[in-house]
Amino acid sequence: MEDSKPYKNDPPPPFEEAEAYTYADPDPDDILPPTVLRLTDQYIQAETSPSSSSQRKLLYQIDQPIGTASQGDKKTFTSAKFERVEHHHSPQTAGLDPTSNTRTIDSCQTHDHLFYLVHPAYARYRKDVPAYYITAVSPEMMGNIHFETTKPSRFRKPEFKALLSPKKTMSSSPLFFFKDGKTQTEKCRLLFNAKAKSIWKGARSQYRWADASGSEVALEEEKKLVIIVPMKREIRDFLVGLWVLRLWFDTAESKQARMEALQSMIPPQLYADVRIGKRTGALGALGALGGAAGVGC
């Protein structure tokens, strides 16, 4: 029986076959080219042809419907798993395709769990953790990241700073360099900041993302993120996660979401009494105005 092991002098396998056996984890320092990403439901895809939705490659996946609609008709959730999707190709054992004289290729996907996106329950009233943050699964990653938001006035859109707590993971205690509702800035590192292209509320949701040096790295327009510079794989992973987290902010901080959150904190009967009280007060005010008008006549 012949030994099937390859010998030192054997020629290398064809490129297609060599690629098939490359299943090592991708290097986080790999430099990735600029790309255009779209969020559709729970899937983040790279556009290969802007005119065709069928020609999009799945790159990331989340397990919750973040940023798609109000959560009033959905199960309440406070965290979402964020995964990178890797595509592997392997040649089938079948023969060559007679029409092209090439080997047929099978494709399979693997999912790499990178981190969690988190918006804690009752975050508005808590001082122990940030309101929006990312926790890394692996200690080999850069660390945990949280948003620090600033809003110059009620009529202007908020700005976001993505602050890295180095070497922290989902298992760390505490999760961040964060205490009593404030960031310990001397221990954190600015990773990105996002500012609205139009600062006024009511304008389209468009944001410019810049790195710590102020250089623009991406443009966001609602469910689309245009990454305009090459960047390391791990940096892009976090940028995409932060983009989705910022979309979650828009959904969770909307008027409808706030009303739903308030209703969930008030017992149903008490909330009904409050609504009746408001209605009665309004009718009383109208009656008083009518009475005053009658006296005036």
The gyration radius over C-alpha positions equals 26 Å
Number of strands: 16
Gap from first CA to last CA: 116 Å
Largest sheet: 12 strands, antiparallel, barrel
Strand order of the largest sheet: 2-3-4-5-6-7-8-9-12-13-14-15
Structural class: alpha+beta
Q: What's the number of domains?
A: 1
Low-confidence stretches: 1-23, 69-74, 291-297
Strand content: 35-45%
Helix content: 10-25%
Oligomer: single chain
Give the overall form: globular
Mean pLDDT: 78
The number of helical segments is 4
Order of secondary-structure elements:
HEEEEEEEEEEEEEEEEHHH
Features:
16 strands; 297 residues; twelve-stranded antiparallel beta barrel; 22% helix; alpha+beta; two-stranded antiparallel ribbon; 36% strand
Describe this structure in words.
A hairpin with a 2-residue loop joins strand 14 and strand 15. The chain has one domain. It has about 300 residues and is of the alpha+beta class. Strands 2-3-4-5-6-7-8-9-12-13-14-15 form a twelve-stranded antiparallel β-barrel. It has a two-stranded antiparallel ribbon with strand order 1-16.
